[in-house]
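Help! Submission page says 'invalid entity' but I think these are all valid:
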Amino acid sequence: MTEKKLPIKGFKEGLLINLGEGDWISVSKTLLTQIDEKPDFFKGAKIAVDVGERAIHAAEMGQLRDRLSERGVSLFAVISKSNITEAVAETLGLSTHKSVLKASNENIRNALMDGEKAVLLQKTLRSGASVKFPGHVIIDGDVNPGAEVIAGGSIYIWGKLRGTATAGADGSEKAVICALDFNPAGMRIANIVKEGQLFKLKIKKSPKKATIQTGSIIISDWKQDNPLK
Amino acid sequence: MAARTITITSGKGGVGKTTATANLAVALASLGQKVVCIDSDIGLRNLDVILGLENRIVYDLVDVIEGRCRLRQAMIRDKRFEELHLIPAAQTRDKNAVSPSDMIKLVDELRDEVDWIIIDSPAGIERGFRNAIAPADEVVVVTNPDVSAVRDADRIIGIIEAEQKGPAKLIINRINPQMIQRGDMMDANDVMDLLAVKLIGIVPEDEHVIVSTNIGKPVALEEKSKAGQAFRNIARRLMGDDIPMMDLEFKEDILHRISRVFKAGGS
């Protein structure tokens, strides 16, 4: 079988995966394999699948939904040009209209990219917002309490960090979390978790950086490192 | 004439949405504006009580939507202002009796007849809230200066932006200047630091509000009430007047100050 990756786009509501050409059994297998390769990235994700013109039976779609659900992924919408498929999706309680997906301004394109890729978000993440990206995440804005950022790589926040941040979600211990005003509710780097501070009225605002040193998360001042040292 | 439609919402319950709706409505009406307020909290009807109109309800919002009466018949005229009307919520139904498109249709029917349509939203982010913001031109978020109310306001503001109804405007209700001075309460700056939207008013905590709710006479009609003054100011800001924010700094009285000096000296 050819190792082809299905294209994935990020939206506010979740991820849209285009299943492309091929018979149903093989494309659904490709999708599941792709998810199994990056379980941390997909865990808890809401996905919509674009199935094109295929007519899909209720049993097939139900099975895909169950397989996804076993992996902690929830299928919430099916985009299709086929009336049969739309009707089936609706009986299963899935959304069918493209309108459910609002393109996010968060320049998340081709979300599954390898290497040192990063995404720049120029916005504030409010409570309830969630950003997931397999590479590094740079935010020019704040991450408010109740918002979360999950990155495969590092997280740099040019603003306040008050929500939760997970860097190195794929297990990379080299990942760091930095913010100009570093007061996260909680943080995780690779598999190490650290609690943040509870809300306080007057908190000290200072640029900090969280890194893993000898197996635990250490928070230090975020300043320019001297390359000559 | 094309009415401005404003939805008052909050996320968290009990922060003063209905109080704000009633007071802005009477304050605008007292400025000679034609106002209709709509209680969209189906099943938990309150706005009629605060306006002192509960004894006049014959038809409600759901009756209009389901065609049991004409829109005019469900509009209850206020006791004090000729040009202030209330469309009450149904008390015996729930949010699913109304859809966002029903609300848009109803508001469109009113737009040519009044200057302002003010919609009181239910708490939460579910169906009732979606119904309430669907027809809105502007959304005003009410919050209290506490962590949980502000967190919910933040969430709501995010949803309003996503629904392209933003940017939301903010009212901070129930500010207690004494507590702020003691460092026990977030002040307006702390709240704005997080929410970063346009602030259109700060309303102090005021016992008059409770009394006025019980007697069905919104506090904006009380000359002496500070909260009433704050709501009157917000109404004028909505009309485009440039009114400075109220000075809510706690003026420490002389006895307090002396006793504090002695205490400090003693310890």
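Support: the input was valid. A stray whitespace character was the problem, and the output above is from the cleaned input. Confidence is low (pLDDT under 50) at residues 103-115 of chain A.
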